[in-house]
């Protein structure tokens, strides 16, 4: 418990920092990586709050593992929607860009989330090892809030933060083609 608790902060910060840096380089924006990581971290917090509110035991090792796995496995949803938004934003206004991005990415995001949910839940149901089973349930359940937040909250954030995202992002993209 003491080792996991001490490592938890370090591992979470390193995972978040690495994802943030990768997004910073690929999206060429400072605000977008923060928004994407915040959306996925919120999904992780929702996922990890379920055992608390259901009064279920959560292995310490499960917390540290699922925080990193869910971040890495589901940040792709946010990247896909945001990349599509930026592509559309070149041609149309922010409302149309949001609409087109959601329309074109909903099926791929839901497909990926469904596969992760089914795979994780199957592992949770059929594994006889307590920690492995719990990790399966956490992975399976974690895909759901991640997909929902990416499809429902992220588009609203992209729309609202467009003035802070679009101009600086376009300047960075022009400076570093």
Keywords:
about 180 residues; mainly alpha; about 0% strand
Kindly summarize this structure in a few lines.
With 177 residues, this protein is an all-alpha fold.
Largest sheet: none
Number of strands: 0
> How far is the first residue's CA from the last residue's CA?
48 Å
Rounded mean pLDDT is 89
What is the count of DSSP helices, taking H or I runs of 4+ residues? 7
Low-confidence stretches: none
Can you give the helix content as a percent range?
Answer: over 70%
Report the portion of residues in β strands: under 5%
Report the C-alpha radius of gyration, rounded: 17 Å
Order of helices and strands: HHHHHHH
The oligomeric state of the chains shown is single chain
Structural class by secondary-structure content: mainly alpha
Overall 3D geometry?
A: globular
What does this structure look like?
The protein is mostly helical. It contains seven helices and no strands. It is globular. The model has no long low-confidence stretch (mean pLDDT 89).
């Amino acid at each position: 418990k003491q080792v996991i608790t001490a490592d938890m902060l370090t591992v979470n910060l390193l995972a978040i920092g690495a994802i943030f840096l990768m997004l910073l380089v690929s999206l060429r924006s400072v605000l977008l990586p923060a928004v994407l990581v915040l959306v996925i971290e919120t999904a992780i917090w929702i996922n990890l709050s379920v055992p608390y509110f259901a009064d279920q035991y959560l292995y310490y090792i499960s917390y540290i593992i699922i925080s990193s796995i869910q971040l890495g496995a589901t940040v792709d949803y946010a990247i896909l929607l945001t990349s599509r938004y930026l592509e559309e934003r070149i041609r149309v206004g922010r409302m149309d860009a949001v609409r087109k991005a959601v329309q074109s990415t909903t099926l791929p995001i839901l497909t990926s989330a469904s596969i992760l949910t089914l795979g994780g839940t199957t592992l949770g149901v059929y594994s006889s090892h307590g920690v492995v089973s719990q990790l399966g349930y956490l992975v399976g359940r974690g895909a759901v809030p991640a997909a929902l937040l990416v499809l429902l909250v992220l588009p609203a954030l992209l729309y609202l933060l467009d003035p802070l995202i679009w101009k600086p992002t376009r300047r960075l993209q022009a400076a570093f083609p």
